[in-house]
Every structure is written in structure tokens, then in C-alpha cells.
Amino acid sequence: MVSYDLLAGLSAASADLGETLDKILPRANGQIEQRLFQAMRYSTLGEGKRLRPFLVLSSASLFKVSRHSALRVAAAVEMVHSYSLIHDDLPAMDDDDLRRGKPSCHKQFDEATAILAGDALLTQAFEVLADEDTHPDPRVCTDLVRALARAAGPHGMVGGQMIDLAGEGQSLDQAQVTHLHLLKTGRMFAFACEAGAILGKAPKSIRMALRSYAHDMGLAFQIKDDLLDVEASSEELGKTAGKDIDQDKSTFVKLLGLEQARDQAKMLCDQAINHLSCFDDEAEPLRAVARFVVERGR
Amino acid sequence: MVSYDLLAGLSAASADLGETLDKILPRANGQIEQRLFQAMRYSTLGEGKRLRPFLVLSSASLFKVSRHSALRVAAAVEMVHSYSLIHDDLPAMDDDDLRRGKPSCHKQFDEATAILAGDALLTQAFEVLADEDTHPDPRVCTDLVRALARAAGPHGMVGGQMIDLAGEGQSLDQAQVTHLHLLKTGRMFAFACEAGAILGKAPKSIRMALRSYAHDMGLAFQIKDDLLDVEASSEELGKTAGKDIDQDKSTFVKLLGLEQARDQAKMLCDQAINHLSCFDDEAEPLRAVARFVVERGR
């Protein structure tokens, strides 16, 4: 086993991704609608772990995919992630004033601009995936579009967000909370990991191994998020903390207790890494992500 | 010239489209997230002119495209149109309580559900276009995805909506209002018309002719909308009328006056029909649409 420096890897990926996003996103240039472009950039180009793009780049590198293709798909994934955060933060949804230590999009701009910026990011992400500059084979592009739409749509991220909202005030059991997070965050993690395999035209079994890795890692990520939400103070986390408990949401911590939630996250991390047994050292970045997800501190 | 019965054509198209949408849209079945599916269906399956799907079907029939392919693309266009209406009606946007004579989505459900239903419809529309069931040639699918994303994205419909919001309270000149509507409604009309040509793998010059038709027809449509907004009462129009004037928006009627706005709409209608000179009788449905757009009553 090689020792992989995850933080250096994340940081390098984030820098490259920033450049790619800067080229893709529309530029404010005195147009009447420039406020829209500013909001899209504000919410996408800021700081952030950029874990999902890193997963795209790491999975793509398993199949020797060109960095250019991988970066464009990573950018599309980050645009969809940013759109989801913008809409989730709206007053009618989670009503969060802070995001990544900055005012959330609707606080920095206004609600209408935030709704439109989210819509525009989601739409443009599909334009990026369908572009031959992303991959010359149109079959690869349609595979990417279809997989992203499924991951983000009514049976994916948006469906998960609906369960999250509908579940407020009623108590969900562990199976329901697991299903919620599989949809809300797991499907997009799975797309990010599968995207590299799609770009590399990998066989179905390999695609499934990467999806399984992502599902377990994503669930571990969510449990850790619940743990951090309880443990962290507002300042340290950069978003309003303790909200889930205030809103009486069903979290893993509430269902399992702190101790068992920690064990569960650890178990899922090991399971995620097991799914990567078909890969050699080249999958070290993905293994490091799984470890990081449960070990990251407050 | 054959005489084409537009109302019969619209009605037949609308029935077929309803069936296609019913198959595509997720079905409420007791899931926790079924409210999302109900909202998607509520806003997409209701009454409505369904002019955009009709344009897809009419342009597709110029190139002997299979009805199945055309209906799926028409469904995607209607889903994107419905999403845009749902988001436009939100309190933070145009704040409309009525849509097509029914409570708008956020009134029937709630704001969060309306935001998510719009997001889900937009996302699923791309899944439909990228599916080989829509067209077996992936190059056709990527063309469709890219063209729709451009029509609906920051340089299309969403950009137009931003101009519309940013332009409130400041007076836009005629060029700016024309640009606004070219983006806000024209680009989606253009996609609907171009879609048939993409499905039929028509040469670029034919694609451009259909786009030009759509741009002129779309602008005529918007001017007529402005005229109807002034003329119609709330009850007859099925949405809150006179809003544009209340909100001090720059409309064609305000810029040109009633008389000249009517002349302009008529002129654009003729110009739109001229763009169809490369087609024979098979383009009668599109010519009839252009005439209908300016002649429709209150």
C-alpha cells in the first residue's frame, strides 16, 4: 500500500477545478442579467471541500481518462452540487443564512436570483456533459447525461430532499433515514464515482463496484455529518449548527445514539474500501477519501 | 394552400402528449416523497394550450420522424415549460396565485414542494432526451440535450427571467425588451421547432429557417400576451391579469402603444410565415400557429 496525501490531492484537484469552472461559467460583463452570472459564480467558485469533483477525477484516473474530460465532468458535478445547496438554503427549504462561512446565495443576492442561479447551474451542467469537448463519443455523453439526471432527479437527490422535508415532525425509522440519505447524497456520490468508469468505458461490474463504494462511503459521510452537527459549534462548521435537532429531524445520531453511530460510520468506511478490492494502488485516493470521511474532525 | 384545422390538431397533440407524460412522470404510490410526484403531475398534466409540444410534433412531421420520438421530445419540452411556470409563480418571483385557472403549484402544495417539483421536472427532461428510447442515435440525443440546455439556461430562458426581474422598476428600451423576450420565451420556442429538425437530421440551413420562424412567432406571441394582459379580465385569462402594469414592467404595449403593438405582432407573424417558404403544405400547422398566435382572442 502506498501512502497517499489526500489533502494535497484535494487541494490540487480543487485548483484545477476552479480553473475549469471559471472557463465554463458565464461571466458578468455589464449585462442586465449579470446578477445571475455573479450569483452562479459566487456559489460555485468559493471555498469548499469539493469532494464530489475529486471523486470524479479519482475514478477517471483509474481508467486513464484524459484530465480535460474528467475536469469537465467534475465541473458539471460541482455545478449540480452548488445548485442543490443554493435551493436547499432557501427560506422555504432549510432556511440557512450561512454556507461555507459566507452568506448563502439568497442572503448575498436575493431569493429570486438564488432560485434562478440554481436553475441555471443545473441546466448548464447538462450542456457541459453533452458537449463533444467533454468526450468525442456521443454514447459516452448520453450515458453521462442519463446517469446524472437519474442521480439528481425525482428518484435521486431531489426525491431525497422531499423525503427530508416530508419527514420533519414525523419520526422516520432507520431504514427510512438510510433511504433518505441514499437518495439525497448517495446517488450523487455514486454518479461522481461512476462517471470515471463511464468516461473510461469500463465494464458494468466495475461500474457497480464503484457505485457500491460510493453508497457506503456516502452513508458514512452522512452519519459523520450528523455527528459533527451535534458536536460542532456554529463558528467552526461555517454553517448554522445544531439545526437538525432544532428542526426535530430524524438523524442517525438520534436513532442510534452517538456511540453506535460512530461504529456504524466506521463499519461503512471499511465496507466501502472492500468494494475497491478489484483495484490496486491506483485506487488509494478513493480509499483515503473513505477514511477521511469518518475521521475528519470538528 | 390546404386548410388546416389548428384547434383539432392542438387537441389531438395534447391528448397524445398527456398519455406520454403520464408514462414518463413518476407515480405517487404511498412513498414518503409522493408529494413531489403529485406536484410534478399537477403542474404538467393539467389543461393548457401545449403550444410548445405541438411545435415539436409539427416540426418533426416535416421530416417523417416517428411519432414516438417526437412525443418524447415534446414531453421533455412541456416538462421544462412547466418547471419554468412553477418557479416563475413563486412568491419570490412573479408571485402568482393562479395558473391556468387553478391554484399555482406553491398554493396547491407549498413553496418547498414547488421548488423541488420544478427542479425535478427540469432534471428529468434531460433524462428523457438522453434516453435511447427517444432516438437510437446517441448523436441525435446529445444534440437535443445541448440545444435544450442552451435554450433553457443562463443565456436562454433563465437569463431572460433574470432580465425581466432586474428590469422591474427601471425602464427598458425596445431593443432590451425584445432581447428579454427572445431569451425568456423565444429560445424555448426555437428549441421546440428545431427539435424536429434535429430528430430528422435535417441540414443546418433548414434548422436555421425553423429557428427564425420560431423567433418571430415567439416575439409575436409575447406582444400578443402583453396586449391580452391589458385587455383581458382576470377571470377570462385564468391568471391574475394586469399584473405587468401593476409591477411597472416594461411591456411592448407601454413602449409602442396599443395600435403599434398590434401592427408589430401582425408584421412578425407574416415574417415568421415567410421563413417557412422552403416547405410545402406539410408546414401548414406551423403557419396556422403563427396566425393563431396573433389572432387568438381574449
TrEMBL record, chains A, B:
<keyword id="KW-0460">Magnesium</keyword>
<comment type="similarity">
    <text>Belongs to the FPP/GGPP synthase family.</text>
</comment>
<dbReference type="Pfam" id="PF00348">
    <property type="entry name" value="polyprenyl_synt"/>
</dbReference>
<dbReference type="GO" id="GO:0005737">
    <property type="term" value="C:cytoplasm"/>
</dbReference>
<keyword id="KW-0808">Transferase</keyword>
<protein>
    <submittedName>
        <fullName>Farnesyl-diphosphate synthase</fullName>
    </submittedName>
</protein>
<keyword id="KW-0414">Isoprene biosynthesis</keyword>
<dbReference type="InterPro" id="IPR033749">
    <property type="entry name" value="Polyprenyl_synt_CS"/>
</dbReference>
<dbReference type="InterPro" id="IPR053378">
    <property type="entry name" value="Prenyl_diphosphate_synthase"/>
</dbReference>
<dbReference type="GO" id="GO:0004659">
    <property type="term" value="F:prenyltransferase activity"/>
</dbReference>
<dbReference type="GO" id="GO:0016114">
    <property type="term" value="P:terpenoid biosynthetic process"/>
</dbReference>
<dbReference type="InterPro" id="IPR000092">
    <property type="entry name" value="Polyprenyl_synt"/>
</dbReference>
<keyword id="KW-0479">Metal-binding</keyword>
<dbReference type="InterPro" id="IPR008949">
    <property type="entry name" value="Isoprenoid_synthase_dom_sf"/>
</dbReference>
<dbReference type="GO" id="GO:0046872">
    <property type="term" value="F:metal ion binding"/>
</dbReference>
